[in-house]
Amino acid sequence: MSMQLNEENGGKLLVVHVSGKLVKADYEQFVPAVERLVRQHGKLRILFDMTDFHGWEASAAWEDFKFGVEHFADIERIAMVGEKQWQHAMATFGKPFTKAKIRYFDHADAAEARKWVDEA
Asked: Which residues form the signal peptide (predicted)?
């Protein structure tokens, strides 16, 4: 699995590129980065680029669930950019687990996703 984190807009936007299958160790990088940015800036905005993403191993799915519970109110907006129908469904499934506004965008609409996640 590959996860790349890029901070933008002075750290208020976290761009997360995921590919392959997430494993528990990926959350050991992701969670501290989010927690640090929340301490520095308050609520965050996240852009998930899920190009070539294939899901989670069981231990990573548990870490993802725990992250959602622990950071329920720390994220303001989540733009999810993907290429598969199940990724679109995942955006809908995640809505009860966060206060964030969540929108799914097809990979072809990545520029629109960035505009939406950045808008005031």
From this structure: none
